[in-house]
Amino acid sequence: MEITVPGDALIGYLLASVRIVSWLVVVPPFSSRAVPSMVKVVLSLGLAFAVAPALHPTQLPTTAFGLITETVTQVAIGASMGFVTFLLLSALAAAGSLIDVFGGFSLAQGFDPLGMNSNTVFGTFHQMIATMILFVTNGHMLVLGGLLSTFRFLPVGARPDTSHGTEVLVDAFHVFFVTAVQIALPMIAVLFLADLGLALLTKVAPQLNAINVMFPAKIGLTLLLVGLSFPVLPQAMDKMMELSTQAMSVMAGAG
Length: 255
Fold this sequence. Notes:
The chain has helices spanning 7-26, 37-50, 64-89, 91-103, 121-136, 139-153, 165-204, 210-228, 232-251, and strands spanning 109-112, 117-120.
């Protein structure tokens, strides 16, 4: 028994998987070194089956140079969309890093099982919380669905419209920074007031050793405020997932 596959359809399928695997290499938690490279390749090949009916193999080049150019184009499209998604989904981890800096935890390093490296305590903690929220709420399906929907607006073989690229990137950086600061700002303000109060206490009572009081007080305040911020994190993560799908659609030329 012989199984024949049209060459154009096969090339279109492989190019679609190239865009998907380029996205997976950039976006957490799929980009983690804890996820083997072979798993990313197999996942990209499986997801490419879902968009196979939307491919237009007649638009693909037939020369070797044209195929190489198209492959590079798909890598650039997937990586650029992945970078914007990475920025938006990393806002919670950035908020944790800000808490580490102002709470005095930046001196301690913890092992990050997702990144397979050392990271600050609350930076790692918030990254793990963001990953948990992503999978518990099926947010990973929403983000992957947003990636696959880009093939309807920007099929394989079509030239991408880069007129909105700079605008989307600037907006992603803006949302990333504002979200991280909004999550961490109440804790930063309380910790700043705690430092100010301890400084005034040192002036009032110079014999009091402020160092012995400052670190336990800041640790207790940081842990208390981080616990109070938990109800805000799912809402922030939902907003980031929604914005990431919208950003990928705009980059694909949906509007």
